[in-house]
Amino acid sequence: MFRPHSSSWCYKLYYPQLKKDHTPNPSPLERGEQSRKTWIDSVFKSILKKEFGGFKFIEIRLFNFQKSIGANSLSLQAMNVLIIGNGGREHAFAYKIKQSSLCKNLYIAPGNAGTALEGINLNIATDNFDALSQVCIEKNIDLIIVGPELPLVKGIRDYFELHPQVKHIPMVGPSKVGAQLEGSKDFSKQFMLRHHVPTAQAKTFTKENLAEGLRYLETCNMPIVLKADGLAAGKGVIIAQSLTEAKQELTEMLADAKFGAASASVLIEEFLQGIELSVFVLTDGEDYIILPEAKDYKRIGDGDTGLNTGGMGSVSPVVFADAAFLQKVESEVIIPTIQGLKKEGITYKGFIFIGLMNVKGKPYVIEYNARMGDPETQSVLSRIDSDLLELLQAAATGKLKQVQYVATSDYTVSVVMASGGYPGDFKKGFDIKGLSTAQTKVFHAGTKNVNQSIVTDGGRVLAVTGRGKTLAEAREKAYETVGKINWEGVTFRKDIGLDLMSWKNG
């Protein structure tokens, strides 16, 4: 529940059915925090006793008499919520949303063994729009949250907006065109250039002009970055250290379809020397909220060695992202991005994941994603103390300006536990032992229930998230739980957050 800090704030009851306000007597104006809380509690009790004429929908509104403007609008109407996805990100969403007093029924499609602990799993693929729309009708869904990139890039919002029976349902997730910020590296690069968002120089090549691309590499400084244009599960980025390696990788990506259709086009991008972080924005297309930043760890091995993965851990907050740097991110990246989407008439109600490089204190955008990251979500949402469902509803309905969110200053560390062999070939179906002993939150990703047991069902299986007043405390809590969980072949990095503990101004 939002609580104002100023004594000039006053609560009112609003009856949408009558289009009237009611200020209680005595007024909550100038009341202390405890008094306001007591009054809110009495309102809830009165509603339950139907002392407000049996109205089913009442809002508590806040007004600042000094400024004469409205502030928060808190809906008391419980919602049926559908989360689309089956990873650790979706379990984190489910966990936070389940805590909301606004959540009536929670459904996850298709979900995993962890989301089944928070709500009801529905065996529907994330890109089966027909089945998803039908279940929305059957379950009387009031809000849809799209977790992964695939349904967004395939145009789930566009499908729902054209469907007469579900077009009224608010959705957290951009349009198909908006999702191209992630779905096409070339699209996003050109968008950044059009709207003067700082980014690395790049050129795009296809199989048809591979020879030209190989010649272009000869003019580039090493190392160089090669990016598959399309979706490649977070693995379509190669940092080539030499010209020979760069030519070989470009040939494999274009001529040999190393990443399938995703590498039908490849960006050759300037390598930026700096330190990487992720910034997350929730927008309703007009206004935005900047969520806690995070740093993820992409490579499989300690010390950032080995193959790229979808992410082996994350930390929030990020010690090298101070207030001055984050102010630059807002003014040079976030605002031009939001304004650019508006100028181009792109419908965008949802998350923008901004992958950044801090280059001597200046932010450069590496990539956009049209959703929250994984495992960053597990760290970021664990720091949000506000009602997440209220925030998401506001974003989906264009009312983000009317809400506030509070993030704790605590640290969070998420450690991914993966199947042996990941990101290459790996086996599934191993019993996961020790989950009942966990002393901190364990978010499920690649898991499923089999004969009343929870077994592995993916490459990245769990994300153990510790929270503490210091980074050291958060790490200790996370790794203590990691040490109690086991299955055949389990692997994890032992150095998540360790670099930040010793970070000294770069």
Structural class: alpha+beta
- What Rg do the Cα atoms give? 24 Å
> For this entry, what is the oligomeric state of its chains?
single chain
- Largest beta sheet, briefly? 5 strands, parallel
Q: What is the CATH T-level topology of one domain? A: Rossmann fold
Distance between the termini: 39 Å
Shape field: globular
CATH C-level name of one domain: Alpha Beta
**Helix content estimate:** 25-40%
The tally of helices reads 14
Q: State the CATH architecture of one domain.
A: 3-Layer(aba) Sandwich
How many strands appear in the DSSP assignment?
A: 26
Chain-averaged pLDDT: 87
Going across the biggest sheet, name each strand in turn: 7-6-5-8-9
Low-confidence stretches: 1-12, 14-34, 47-59, 61-75
Percent of residues in beta strands? Answer: 25-35%
Short description:
Helices cover 27% and strands 27% of the residues. The chain is of the alpha+beta class and 506 residues long.
Characteristic key phrases:
single chain, Rossmann fold, alpha+beta, 5-stranded antiparallel β-sheet, Dna Ligase, domain 1
Explain how this protein is built:
The strands form seven sheets. A five-stranded parallel β-sheet has the order 7-6-5-8-9. Strands 16-19-22-26-23 form a five-stranded antiparallel β-sheet. A four-stranded antiparallel β-sheet has the order 2-1-3-4, with no helix packed on it. The N terminus is likely disordered. The longest helix is centred in the middle third of the chain and has 21 residues. The protein is of the alpha+beta class and 506 residues long. The protein has 14 helices and 26 strands. The radius of gyration is 24 Å and the shape is globular. Among the domains are: 67 residues, no CATH class; 96 residues, Rossmann fold; 70 residues, 2-Layer Sandwich (Dna Ligase, domain 1), CATH 3.30.1490.20.
